[in-house]
User: What shape does this take?
Amino acid sequence: MKEILSGNEAIARGAFEAGCLVACAYPGTPSTEILENTIKYKEINSSWAPNEKVALEVAIGASFGGGRALCTMKHVGVNVAADPLFTLAYTGVRGGLVLVVADDPEMHSSQNEQDSRNYARFAKVPMLEPSDSLECKEFTRLAFELSEQYDMPVMLRSCTRISHGKSIVDLGERVTGLPLPKLEKNPAKLVMLPGNARVRHPLVEASLQKLSAAASSMAINRSELRDRSIGIITSGVCYQYVREVLPNASTLKLGMVNPLPYDLIREFASQVDKLYIVEELDPFIEQQVRAMGINAIGKELISLCGELTPGRLRSSFCLPQPEAAPAEKLPGRPPNMCPGCPHRGVFFALNQLKAYVTGDIGCYTLGFMPPLSAMDTCVCMGASIGMATGVTKVVSAEEKKKVVAVIGDSTFLHTGINGLMDMVYNNSPATVVILDNSITAMTGRQDNPASGFTLMDNPANAINIPLLCKSLGVKNIRIVNPLDLEETRRVLAEEMERPETSVIITNKPCVLIKREDVFQKGPVYAVESEKCTGCRACLKIGCPAIEWRPAGDGSKKGKAYIDPLLCTGCDVCRQLCKFDAIGSR
Amino acid sequence: MNEQITNVLLVGVGGQGILLASEILSEAAMLAGYDVKKSEIHGMSQRGGSVVSHVRYGKQVFSPIVPEGEGDILFGFELMETCRSLPLLKPGGTVVANDLKISPPSVLMGQELYPEGLVERIRSSFPDFMLLDGQQMAGSAGNVRAANTVLLGAVSKKLDIAEQHWMKALEKMVPSKALDVNRKAFQLGRDYK
Assistant: This one.
């Protein structure tokens, strides 16, 4: 049967067909939907872990228990999971283990565009790279087989255009007859003490060499000879752009990017006049090809930064660009917090208090955008708290009071707890605001260990965040309603003034939570036109439901208007109006 | 059956139902026997930001994104976003646009005005231009939220995909309780001259 599937849906399908028993992940764009699709297959135990390191460790355990296991994450997630990954390469697997990593060239939804292929080489793990949805499914199946055959974890690298692109896939059946998981002790292989690890490392190198030799005859590494004056080595989505823009060029399409098929590369290079390497981001293939003593052109033509497109590839090869309409000068349309978002009031107060805000990763990173403009740093998941501690170590006593870390519930549980431990332990006077909206919102509302539900939608223990903070030693814990501007501002000011660690936890849910009884819409608000003086105070929160309507006489005058279809009745704008012009309809 | 690749761009603002419309289009193209690819960006940009969905179909499709300047049809759910994506179209390309303005943050906050004369700007560069009031037409079909389906109906006339495939794709992709309204909305768009 044929279906149109996204790369992520196809990877989930591939895991199902491969007889995968466990799938574990922390959500991260563009990888999130893989686990949201493995839940369609009741044979797979799918779960969200609090972070990528735990997710990989769960998959490792499932593999050591004898079951096939899938772990998925975005590129930066591998930084968190790197610790188990590097040693997993030494232990190898029992049940096949596939680690999917989805890169984000162009940083559509990421803080950097690191190239995960380097991890495969660094950690000594094989890596496959599909170039459409059908390959996503087929390569996932193959990755499980290779993992068991070579006793190695196998990485599958996707990217935004593969994970979120859709194409036609032929569905297959789930494999049967795999050995049943069962405890089996094998300490020489699985206990990585120095004595054991020293024995394992040469085995890893030998497996990689064996795989590299086999790679030259694998069907996924494919030489397509056409016009021999130009030969292009490429992989992943770049293969599609090459076929689109240079349809007559000969191509060597690599389905496996680590280890490389050296014999096949040598053969291809000898069959073409001029050799090019087309790859996004780092010169990963290029440097290895050059190290083989083969002359190839790569990053001289293709940028190290951003994603490739057919147009950019055309430019690189100096091909004519089609005639196109000039770009119009238009107002931009950046992303914005939703109407009624409980984060808005907190950032409004932080802006008013002129706080120095160490930020974190989530919807609330949008607190950086004007008019809220209340975020001064953002580095990685969980970093806000550690950075706040560090800033207070160097600035004056007066400036220390300005330092506030903001972090969401899911990010706090991901890697924020250790930061808070350190803040208390080393007695930093900074203030931490945990924006608890009861969900992992930015990636599309996934449950987490504090939301009370699992990925499979079963009720679960919900972590009590105030109690958790108390047990870490935080003495000053305040719960505030972030939709009450006066209370939020007052509590923030009090805790910023306090010369010891304090934690403020907000208690309103994300407006997009679909589960009943979590978010409740209030009465819709409206502006009483006669009372509105056009002072623009309500515009300072940047709510998409509030619109400035110019008087239309060329003057700067006008009035505010609330879109009844967008308003959630959060009440925040009413509290800003000094003229009592805003109220429920 | 057309062997050439047809490149369709669906553009608008996050939350307008663009992804559903592009799913229906891709499904219909597959049912008609074409190879199909589709691509768009999720995540950060969806929080009220601009959305561009690329759908390509033909005998064999390589790139999942429409090469710049090769779009055959631009299918705009919002006027400013329609205008923003004109450089993706080939000269002489077709524009089907919804007559709707959604103010971006800078306009909501009174820092800029929503640009004037967009319809004229589009028409002067792309004479093959159809403008519909998707909301009003969807309302007469029974639900203003089916505006995306009205537009899809209008676009369907311009594409080499038989009506039966569209109907099958609608049945598959639209929840059953909304199917009647969406069928009507699609037909209104398809019959619009």
About this structure: Chain B touches chain A through 56 residues (CB under 8 Å). Chain B has one domain: 6-108+115-191. Chain B has a mean pLDDT of 93.
